């Protein structure tokens, strides 16, 4: 039986930050499930940069079904967690079911991959204190306020936590996460 990995996300997540790890981890032989506030068709978005804009723009992205609701997740069934970015973490951090899931992964020291705005979720449960992380660069002050040391790098590894800035860093992020994952939770 394949080792299971959980991706937690919601509407307005960055399309690439959900689908790249989803497909890359499946390619490695992991059984990957996507959880959201409810079982439904999720609407992802595409963030990109336009000439003349001071920040990224947002366009509709892919849709994808959530396999299960946060309330249906048993963290003990999963070997690792992936937290994509986009706008979803802004509202997901208020979900008490999701906070319980996140806390269970950190309490058990399971591998966690977070990217872009995803660290807003780990900050919300107090799991960044004393850790090294990266995130979307505009979150540097948020990461420091959460007690983390922010590093502006493609990928930052701190024990079983692997973080990245945004989708252009996918290759390095997944390479580092897979190194941690293979050591802690091989695919089969």
Automatic annotation (TrEMBL):
It comes from the Bacteria. Pfam families: DJ-1_PfpI. PROSITE patterns: PEPTIDASE_C56_PFPI. Residues 4-178 form the DJ-1/PfpI domain. Belongs to the peptidase C56 family. This is DJ-1/PfpI/YhbO family deglycase/protease. It comes from Streptomyces boluensis.
């Amino acid at each position: 039986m394949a080792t299971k990995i959980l991706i937690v996300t919601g509407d307005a997540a960055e399309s690439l930050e959900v689908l790249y790890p989803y497909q890359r981890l499946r390619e490695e032989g992991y059984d990957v499930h996507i959880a959201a506030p409810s079982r439904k068709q999720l609407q992802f978005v595409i963030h990109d940069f336009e000439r003349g804009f001071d920040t990224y723009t947002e366009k509709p992205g892919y849709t994808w079904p959530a396999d299960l609701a946060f309330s249906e997740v048993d963290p003990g069934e999963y070997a690792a967690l992936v937290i994509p970015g986009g706008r979803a973490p802004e509202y997901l951090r208020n979900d008490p079911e999701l906070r319980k899931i996140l806390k269970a992964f950190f309490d058990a020291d399971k591998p966690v991959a977070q990217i872009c705005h995803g660290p807003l979720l780990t900050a919300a449960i107090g799991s960044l204190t004393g850790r090294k992380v990266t995130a979307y660069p505009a979150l540097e002050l948020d990461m420091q306020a959460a007690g983390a040391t922010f590093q502006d790098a493609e990928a930052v590894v701190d024990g079983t936590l692997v973080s990245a800035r945004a989708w252009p860093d996918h290759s390095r992020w997944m390479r580092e996460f897979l190194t941690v994952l293979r050591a802690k939770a091989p695919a089969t």
